[in-house]
């Protein structure tokens, strides 16, 4: 029995798709446990074909794997159908995809409210993806959400949408000066879409637990990252769910004691999308270098990512918060050709050295990186197959990150392709 959690250790976009893909053939199940189509995973197949996935678990690209959209996910029906047909058009078998009956549906009014709220906040905006994620989770917590299983009872579904829209329309019209949404139109639209995915709705929690009892391997795939977690991230510049490892049990319906491995995905430098503090952010030519060499553009929104050096304070924090047992270090190749490679080992906050995440939001806003410098390497490492193939200085950089982060770096990505991964210790 093995349940493995895959979690981004920074602000998301660490390259989780590559890790899922590496584990692919050893998995029987891949489960998304939180988030929605605010996520974007890029997977490059051996034949060079590239897939960008948003809502659907990346196990869909590995034949024979069962894929589950867990109860913790928010599902935009239109996006789901478009993503499914995009995969089917490229001959990907999607028959094994199931949607938890308890997953919340992201409705057109959630998208409308997300966009107007951000506009209203002006320069205080969160920089959301504009996909309605926050408003959908707000409804879930306020107990006025609509769940996947609701589309199986059209009367109940219509009642829930009408009740939700009563308040939403007041907000849209009276606060934001927008047009009201017609309940009957929303009901019709979503029920028509539901015809395309109704057959996939299932009670996925017992299926997953039975699979674990049979000894099958389940990957619980997080989206976003540790610092975007609504509890443990850089609040309020976070997403509205719990990507951290504890969220994997809640968002899939398996017990926490079933989790045997927590695999953190860690980029060899740092990136962030949207607003909020970012101590190692670079505003000079090195920031441009990382963005360009690393191809740092959001898969979902196409927005340019903010770039900075590796931050070991964050990595240490992620190791603890998630109970990370192994790291997959991605994009090491992007750092080739630097004379020296900076690592942020601590912060200076208002004149004092701080080794942990500051307690207050103000403290984190004031945090200035304290750098240590490692000698760089100039060799092209994209064809290295083993740790020993790496130049000595690249090995030293990895070992120092491992020491500072507090968990074993088991895999190292040296390029985007499926075969461009060095495995130091097998995950499964
Ligand atoms: P939301 O999830 O759309 O509400 O956006 C909240 C914050 O999370 C914003 O700063 C987004 O840019 C960020 N965010 C959401 N999803 C991702 C992701 O998959 N990668 C990186 N940042 C993300």
Number of helix segments? 12
Could you say which small molecules are bound to this protein? inosinic acid
E-strand count: 20
Radius of gyration: 22 Å
What's the shape?
A: globular
Uncertain segments are none
Major sheet: arrangement of strands: 9-7-5-2-10-1-11-15-19-20
EC number: 6.3.4.4
Main location: cytoplasm
InterPro entries: Adenylosuccin_syn_GTP-bd, Adenylosuccin_syn_Lys_AS, Adenylosuccinate_synth_dom1, Adenylosuccinate_synth_dom2, Adenylosuccinate_synth_dom3, Adenylosuccinate_synthetase, P-loop_NTPase
Family: Belongs to the adenylosuccinate synthetase family.
What's this model, at a glance?
The protein has helices spanning 16-23, 77-89, 108-121, 133-141, 154-175, 183-194, 204-213, 246-250, 285-293, 312-322, 361-366, 392-405, and strands at 2-8, 29-32, 41-44, 50-53, 66-69, 74-75, 97-100, 104-105, 201-202, 217-221, 259-267, 270-272, 306-308, 310-311, 326-330, 340-349, 352-354, 368-375, 408-413, 421-423. It has 428 residues and is α/β, with parallel strands linked by helices.
Your description of this structure?
Substrate binds at residues 299-305. Its EC number is 6.3.4.4. This is Adenylosuccinate synthetase. The chain is an alpha/beta fold and 428 residues long. The chain has two domains: 2-91 and 203-423, Adenylosuccinate Synthetase, Chain A, domain 3 (Alpha-Beta Complex), CATH 3.90.170.10; 104-198, Adenylosuccinate Synthetase, subunit A, domain 2. 31% of the residues lie in helices and 21% in strands. It contains twelve helices and 20 strands. The chain has helices spanning 16-23, 77-89, 108-121, 133-141, 154-175, 183-194, 204-213, 246-250, 285-293, 312-322, 361-366, 392-405, and strands at 2-8, 29-32, 41-44, 50-53, 66-69, 74-75, 97-100, 104-105, 201-202, 217-221, 259-267, 270-272, 306-308, 310-311, 326-330, 340-349, 352-354, 368-375, 408-413, 421-423. The strands form five sheets. Strands 9-7-5-2-10-1-11-15-19-20 form a ten-stranded mixed sheet, sandwiched between helices. A hairpin with a 5-residue loop joins β3 and β4 (50-53). The longest helix has 22 residues, at 154-175. It is globular, with a radius of gyration of 22 Å. 49% of the residues are buried. The protein binds inosinic acid. Inosinic acid binds next to α4.
